[in-house]
User: What shape does this take?
Amino acid sequence: MTKPKTMREVKEMYDRGANIMKLFHELEPGATNSLRAILTSYDLQSGSYIKFVTEHPEFVDNYMGTLARLLDGMLPASLLEAGVGEATTLVNVLARMTKVPAEAYGFDLAWSRIACGNEYAAAKKVSPHLFVGNVMEIPIQDDSFDVVYTSHTVESNRGREKDILRELYRVARRYLVLLEPSNELGSEESKRHIEEFRYCRDLPRHAAELGYKVIEHRLYDYHWSQRNQTSLMIIEKGLASQARDNEYCRTDFYACPACKRPLEMHKGNYYCRECFLVYPVIGGIPCLATAHGILASKYLEKA
Ligand SMILES: [Zn+2]
Assistant: This one.
């Protein structure tokens, strides 16, 4: 294999059918999927999820409809999908919920996927707030969302399960709902798949070791692939739902991913007064990973 030198060359290999995660495994051997591998894979595949759900309306009805009914039972006033991709799950869940949460947010590592997600949401007449962020350092204040859920987000993060659970739990108020592969449930083929792709393992054990209350863990009702079945795990955090006033502004939830203090909007970008970091808003999309932060101690007075 010729080693690609630039991201354009990686994309050309992807366009010719290369598996980006496997490519990075060969380039960077190690026990876990590197953040760069995940990000590259996710960004280059932007558009693929929308194509998939458009071609599989029955799957959408089943998978997203079942999740919508589950979330309906929790009556969330606010909802966050971590690892939202192109918002194909979030948009279709919101479109199927009986009582739509007043505030629906979603984030993903890859800007291109969020951009696709905004287009998809607009076409479906649903308007969640989508932003770029990293599940290892969620740019959201503590106890913000009644329900936080994932759909195959922890999946590619073997070795980081506890850190991610801790972050997801931190920003949740009442429930954390995880639709992820399980090495304990489901078919032997799925278990082999988890090992082959180094997917996450032992989520109930990690949750228990963190002292979290797992109230449900079972194979989910639907799977987009029998080779990679989905399991449902629900953690109850149990804080009361927080009524927010009508003057609520959307910057309310955002926090600096580095220090977790509230961000403020200034001249079209987000700013952290503690870290002096400017987080840019690009194409209307807030970019809120520490890697995006531009050190600018004079931003408030000079910009
Ligand atoms: Zn900060």
